[in-house]
Sequence to fold (615 residues):
Amino acid sequence: MPKQFIFLTLFAASFLTACLKESTAASSKNRILQQIQSSEQKPVQNSQHLACATDTCGSAAKLPYLSVKPQEVDVHLYKKNLEHILQEYLDLQKDSLQFKSKVLQDFSAMQIHSLSDSNLVLINFLLFVQYDGAVSSALKFANNRIQVDVESLKKELEKVSLVDVGQIRWITTTAKLIFESQFFYENWYLSQFPLEIFVQKKYPELQILDALSAEAKTLLETQNRFIENYPLLEDGADSTLAVLKKAISKQPLSPDEKKEFILSRLTLSIYRDILPHGSWRSHFTKSPFIINQIIQDSLAKYQKSLKYSNDKTKMQKDFQTVSFECSYHLLNKIAASPTLQQNNRFRNRIQNLKSESLKIINSNYKSPEVLQALDQVKLILPPTKDETVTGQIRSFLHEIKSTKKMIERIKKFNFNNQDDKETVLLMLVGSSISSTISTDENVFIDVKEYCEEQSPETISDAAYTNYQVVNVGWRSVLYPEYGLGIAAHEIGHVLSTADAAQGSQSQFTKVKACLSQNQNGSTNFVEEDFADLFAAQIIKQQPQAHSNYSCLLLSQESGEFSELELTSSHPEAKHSSSFYRLIAIGSHTHKLSPSCRAVKLNSDKGHALKNCWGL
Fold:
């Protein structure tokens, strides 16, 4: 939810998300820029390749693109459950800002000469997180490790106003301390797995619900110690507390709650293992930021937004705009969520797919390890419409409750007491630091950002091969004619990993050598090409999986095809080009149109492409 209230999950939710992928807003901006650039200078497409793509996929405009449309969902579901809650939250956002601005104004003249170490560490840590955009742009990934490009980080931070050289040096050092630590890498790495996989890895002897309960107990103990050391963060812990208690009682968690569990675990681990200890704590108490200047900067933020909020005409216009945009994104997320019946139907189809896979494997390969891996494949399906709506309601209601609680807590403080004054100041400063209100002068900007983040993910299908788990994306369930092939592709990765563990006894050695020959001897694409090859064997046996799923990879929201080349334009790519995959899958399924056969015959790379299955 909006960053100014999520103290407990601030680092994991806002900082890591910014580090590991572009924000929805940034992605939208980049997409718009790309469309403008492409409209100005569109690459000349090979007419033969375009004909092949059109004959195979039909009109690109008819394909299911990166998102669905809100009108595809029953708007009554939104109006009945969400509309009034969103409006209440937007109203509360405005009232909260005005209240906090008034309180901070009253206390702004107060000078704080010293803070407790815990409060100082917390404030400086929040300040560091504030520069997440600059830090994220300097992140590099090499050998499955996160690294920081220090020079790039310095250049990015130099663009940030009010950050002097000494502060840039401190932020750079902090980034290196965190990202180069083995602790951070290990905990971040674990956070990338679905919750079921993480607890299976940590508690292999326990069933899922028992393992979740055990982990939740550990996290609750950590959270209690954490709040004891950092009482300012108590208000942000309610939502996490509810999820932990639910897990402890061994109740199944919703997809939304599972995500919160993962983020909470990562955040609590950071606060537990970084901030309180030795050199970390010492580092965060030696920040060059001056607390009184931070207070004045926070006051300036509030005053700026308060002045804006007094412009009733502009504020009402922005209120209506944000309300409309939020409705659009929330409805989009609901529309992209399958029904329970669709999920169940897809699960049953996968069972049929696995049975067909068993026949195909048995007819050519006699690897017990591969057959065992196939039998153990488990699915993680996307949240249903009801789960999505329930999760959105829960998030908004939590923020409404948390905001009201914070205001009531401030009202109860004795403002004649110096300790109480310091506590209130720090609560408001912490809220200011973690908020984006100063950058846009729009009091609803945090709500807007949250809603934008609800847009459906582009692609979330993935295989966790060592655990025989396949994560299924929303598009695969809503469009099973494509989705069954995509699921077969992910299962192919699971089987490839199980087979590769046999070393010299590998059953698929010849297959992969043949696939490498199709790529002029390159082994870069072997694993992905193998998964495509395996999926093709399934597709041609499944009447409901007749579509070539590479059509999805070739399509754009503009209604056009992209990258109609046989060779990948990305030198470090692990996937073959989308057009090569279209030709390959069509070849393997014996469903090449005349135009595509012409492409294959007229291209050296296409002509060399062989169906390598069954060698």
About this structure: The two ends are 53 Å apart (CA to CA). The longest helix spans residues 75-107. The mean pLDDT is 79. DSSP finds 30 helices and five strands in the chain.
